[in-house]
Structures are given as structure tokens and as C-alpha cells.
Amino acid sequence: MQGENPPMTDRLDRTLQLLLQRAYALLGHRPALSALLTILTLVTLLPPLVLGLWALNRSVVDRRNDDIRQLAELSSTIANSVDREIRGWSETLQVVATSPMLRSGDLSGFHAWATSVVKSAGGNFAVVDRHLDQVANTRVAFGVPLPKPASRS
How many CB atoms lie within 10 A of CB 101? Predict the structure, then answer.
């Protein structure tokens, strides 16, 4: 029984022969060797090509998801930073607005004190009256004439 094929190989041979017979029947003739070689090449190359395209697509999707996650983290960090900055300036302005020197009209003393406060905060601010005329501005020295507001419509 040396020349006999194992049962699995027999089944595979029969299946291939049946497939070839059906292909011949559909075509109406026996295909040329070049056609069979082309089919064999396609059958051999198509699965790795499809797998490679799927892997490439997966890689692109994963990279996109990573980029979206990183952008979300960055935007959250920026938003938190801006919120802290706004809270800090809000607290500074609340302290400045309750200054006894400002309430008593001591603009020279208020200007000196406010200038030292904003130096630590890293900015400047201006105090305006009800008519939007500047009465103090930490950007310029006290006593320097302050600009008038642009004409209002």
C-alpha cells in the first residue's frame, strides 16, 4: 500500500478534479495554461494582499484614535490652564477692587499698591469711572495723562 494516498489526500484530489471539471463546464473549454497560471498567481497573492491592506487600515485607524486622544488631553490641559489664569486674575481683581485706598480716593497710593500687586501677577490693568474715563493705569507712572475713551456711538 505504498503507492496509495492517505484518505485526506484522496478527498483533496477528488475535490480539485471536481472543481476543474465544473470550471471547464462553465467555460465551455479547457482553459489555457497561462490562464491557469494567472489564477494560481491570484489565488496565491490575493490573501496576503488583503491581509496587508487590512493591517494598514488597522494601523491608520489606531494612529487616528491615538491622535484624537492626544488632542483631547492637550485641549483639556489648555482649558485647565486658562481656567487657572482666569481664576487668578479674578481673585487679583477682587482684591484690588476692595482696596480702601481706591474707595477713599487716594489714587497715588492705590496706583503704587496696585502696581506692586500686578508685578507679581505678571500683567497690568486700568481702573475706569462710570463714564469709562481712566482714573488709574498700572502700565504708566502715576500722574501721566491717561487717554480718553474713543467716542461712543
Answer: 16
pLDDT digits (tens, 9 = 90+) for 131-145: 888 888 988 888 888
pLDDT at 1: 47
Position 22: which residue type?
R
Whole-angstrom Cα distance, residue 94 to residue 36? 86
DSSP string, 97-153: HT-HHHHHT-HHHHHHHHHHHHHHHT---EEE-TTS-EEEETTS-TTSPPPPPPPP-
Rounded Cα gap, residues 1 and 87, in angstroms: 91
Low-confidence ranges of the chain (pLDDT < 70): 1-6, 151-153
Cell of 64: 487616528
State the Cα–Cα distance between residues 117 and 108, nearest whole angstrom: 14
In angstroms, the CA 60 to CA 53 distance is 11
For the entire predicted model, the pTM comes to 0.53
